[in-house]
Design brief:
The protein is α/β, with parallel strands linked by helices. 39% of the residues lie in helices and 17% in strands. It is built from five helices and five strands; from the N terminus they run βααβαβαββα. It has helices at 19-22, 27-40, 53-63, 83-92, 130-149, and strands at 2-7, 44-49, 70-74, 96-100, 122-125. Strands 2-1-3-4-5 form a five-stranded parallel beta sheet, with helices on one face. Helix 4 links the parallel strand 3 and strand 4. The chain starts with a strand and ends with a helix. Bound molecules: 1,3,4-trihydroxy-5-OXO-cyclohexanecarboxylic acid (DQA).
């Protein structure tokens, strides 16, 4: 099983960018924790970050022939207006867990709306870096359940 971890614009700055909101873990540290947890659960993790919407879409389209089984994505600000990203996620066809470090519903008005949520299986917001690991655990449980009941 291959689970993708995708982080969008500005998330390469984690650990330095507004730590009181986004925490002190850097993106490489979060990716290492995610990859370690994936290994424990017996799945492969593929981590990707880009600041451009098109770069993320190119990455997703490249993954279609390889067969992604699940996607954990923090789209950053693309959450709020990234319709092309939303279409690309829908096209992949794998379950998507939209994940945010901060509680986007308790912040500025513009952050409360997600254009990604309608194509996501679920949304996690406000659990910091641990949210990525909860998303991974959920996806593995879901995929194992689907594989054993089909
Ligand atoms: C974020 C929330 C977004 O509103 C913001 O633009 C980000 C990070 C989060 O993880 O809390 O870049 O997705």
């Amino acid at each position: 099983m291959r689970i993708l971890l995708i982080n969008g614009p500005n998330l390469n700055r984690l650990g330095h960018r507004d730590p009181s909101v986004y925490g002190t873990m850097t993106l490489p540290e979060i990716e290492a924790a995610f990859t370690a947890r994936a290994k424990e659960r017996g799945v492969d993790a593929v981590c990707f970050q880009a600041n451009g919407e098109g770069q993320i879409i190119d990455f997703l389209q490249g993954e279609i022939p390889r067969g992604a089984d699940g996607i954990v994505i923090n789209p950053g600000a693309l959450t709020h207006y990234g319709y092309s990203l939303r279409d690309a996620l829908q096209d992949v066809g794998a379950p998507v867990i939209e994940t945010h470090l901060s509680n986007i519903h308790a912040r500025e008005e513009f952050r409360r709306r997600s254009v990604i949520a309608p194509v996501a299986r679920a949304q996690i917001a406000g659990l910091g870096w641990r949210g990525y690991l909860f998303a991974l655990d959920f996806l593995v449980d879901l995929l194992v359940t689907e594989a054993t009941t089909s």
